[in-house]
Amino acid sequence: MCGIVAYIGSRPAFPVILKGLKRLEYRGYDSSGIALFGEEVACFKRKGRVAELEAWTESVTATAHVGIGHTRWATHGEPSDANAHPHTSNSGRLTLVHNGIIENYASLKQELIAKGYTFKSETDTEVLVNFIEEIQQKNESTLEEAMRIALKRVVGAYVIIVMEEGFPERLIAARKGSPLVIGVGEGEHFLASDASPIIEYTKRVIYVNDYELAIISKDEIILKNLGNEPITPYIQQLDMELAQIEKGGYDHFMLKEIFDQPASLTDCLRGRLDMENLSLTLKGVEDHLSVFTQAKRIVIVACGTSWHAGLVAEYMIETLCRIPVEVEYASEFRYRNPVIGPGDVIIAISQSGETADTLVAIERAKEQGAFIFGVVNAVGSSIARLSHSGAYTHAGPEIGVASTKAFTAQLTVLAMMAMKIGKEKGTLSSDEYNRYLAELAQIPAKVEKTLATHEQVKAVAAYYAEARDFLFLGRGYNFPVALEGALKLKEISYIHAEGYPAAEMKHGPIALVDENLPVLFIATQDAYYEKIVSNIQEIKARKGKVIAVVTEGDTLISSMADHVLEVPAVDELLAPLLSVLPTQLLSYYIGVLRGLDVDKPRNLAKSVTVE
Ligand code: AGP
């Protein structure tokens, strides 16, 4: 779950790599390092943020044109200077950076220790660089050959980029399970975990696939598989602007991305929702329509916020398509040996498209003959490429670790899928279908209107910024929003928060309620309204502090709650797209009031590429 960057060309490599690491810091930020290939290889690495490495290397006047860099999310060995990357082999001849986990590193390490190797760190990565060196020396082979042999014996996930003493004009990279993008320039090449460090230099990129090796000089890229067969590089054009990965005048990426949502949802609907012809175009579904209309069941697989989007989709698809839906935590699904086979449709939801548990879960399901449909934000990511078909959410780059605009874009794609399949299956009438399209078309404007109430949310945040615990409650479509609101508050403010179906309270959690416990109800107008009113009364009867997200103009709940946050009226099926917004803002403002780094919360990272 780290970020890696490399450069080979004619520019000074150090500033290019340092800037790239800052762009990738959301992938891991507990230590960082850079190795430069000048006269010889020089390595700089430090515990802490990239800014600490920058300060520590202020006096470095490196002119080297080749280098590799890394920002870390610790898996093996705590954050420290010694465990920071790059790691060098015992002879000093090989230096590499690594993103991923070598699962069989302990046994490899024993083998190497028996051969006299010593280790300065606790990392699996230092084992890997020495293992490659051992193979190279034993076989008197080239580095490329040694990497091919070594990587066939490695179990786990990796992207590695290796520099070899005596070969300053080339880098060798390899990939399995973790992401790697190569930026193609004129007389220079850039390598990175994603395109954000590359985009300001070139929009021509190559996405490296699993089991591929890339030998890169400043003028040439040679791609091969581990079987030493050449692969023709497929150069793609990035459809991303640099501005999209900058803060745009906001204090934090999280706030920028929350306010991006009217635009990101418009982008998500563009070319799909046609109100003139009252039609929806979802090519990924249309190309395989019968797979969906004849599906016996749909299994949604995801993690974190994406899993919450899956829960909302369960309500949407079962209501509009009358197809049974199961929503699975990918981390459990991948090991549970679930009953999956041909005829089953798996929907994999992921912002990054690189979440390891979701990736392996769909690999398993694919092996058993299931049809895989990806709902993904990151274009060209592993889950997108592994799926039989899919739909991109087009939310644009999401830098803040807490997922916000990707969540609402996921809900929008899933709603369009439910409407499309329901219509084609005949379980949704044309009138209903047209009514839903009209509702969908109004969503970006209603999101804008909801975000305009941010000052009210800020005022409520000031009330509860010192809370020790928090409960989020909802029913029906809003139950998953309660879970999502609780997750956002946990991630951003470190307050212990839980989400529950409101009717579940009587079965235990209501014991937590007293005058010190804020309880946020997602209570917009829907079929459950009367029920949730009585749930609010149960909390008020025990002196709980109630914050209620209600439909604008609500008077009943507004008279009962301590604080009210309004959203425009909308059909209950699309209510989560609006009712989640105050919870995103609330967690943001509470996080800021508590003086926390809302873009890079402790212990987290944006893309969980290890299990
Ligand atoms: C959400 O704010 C978190 N960043 C996290 O729960 C995230 O949703 C989860 O890791 C899944 O990521 P994905 O959507 O990229 O697969």
Structure description:
By secondary structure, the chain is an alpha/beta fold. It contains 21 helices and 27 strands. The protein has an eight-stranded antiparallel beta sheet with strand order 3-2-4-1-10-9-11-15, with helices on one face. Strands 5-6-7-8-12-13-14 form a seven-stranded antiparallel beta sheet. Strands 19-18-20-21-22 form a five-stranded parallel beta sheet, with helices on both faces. β20, α12 (356-367) and β21 form a beta-alpha-beta unit. The protein is globular. The termini are close together. The model has no long low-confidence stretch (mean pLDDT 94). It binds 2-deoxy-2-amino glucitol-6-phosphate (AGP).
Summarize the structure.
It is built from 21 helices and 27 strands. The chain is an alpha/beta fold and 611 residues long. The site of 2-deoxy-2-amino glucitol-6-phosphate has 15 residues, from α10.
| Strand neighbour order, sheet with most strands | 3-2-4-1-10-9-11-15
According to DSSP, the number of beta strands is 27
Strand % is 15-25%
> From the alpha-carbon coordinates, what is the Rg to the nearest angstrom?
25 Å
- Kindly report the average pLDDT value: 94
SS-based class = alpha/beta
Largest sheet: 8 strands, antiparallel
Ligands bound, unique: 2-deoxy-2-amino glucitol-6-phosphate
Helix content: 25-40%
| Uncertain regions spanning at least 5 consecutive residues | none
3D shape: globular
Number of helices: 21
Beginning-to-end CA distance, first to last residue: 10 Å
SSE topology sketch:
Elements: E1 3-8, H1 13-23, E2 31-37, E3 41-47, H2 50-56, E4 66-72, E5 87-88, E6 94-102, H3 105-114, H4 124-139, H5 143-153, E7 156-164, E8 171-176, E9 181-184, E10 189-192, E11 204-207, E12 212-216, E13 221-225, E14 230-231, E15 235-237, H6 253-259, H7 261-269, E16 273-274, E17 279-280, H8 283-286, H9 289-293, E18 298-302, H10 304-321, E19 325-329, H11 330-333, E20 345-350, H12 356-367, E21 371-376, H13 382-386, E22 389-392, H14 405-425, H15 430-441, H16 443-451, H17 454-464, E23 469-474, H18 479-493, E24 496-501, E25 518-522, H19 529-540, E26 545-551, H20 556-560, E27 563-567, H21 576-593
Parallel strand pairs: 18-19, 18-20, 20-21, 21-22, 23-24, 23-25, 25-26, 26-27
Antiparallel strand pairs: 1-4, 1-10, 2-3, 2-4, 5-6, 6-7, 7-8, 8-12, 9-10, 9-11, 11-15, 12-13, 13-14, 16-17
Helix pairs in contact: 3-4, 4-5, 7-14, 7-16, 10-14, 10-18, 14-15, 16-21, 17-21, 18-21
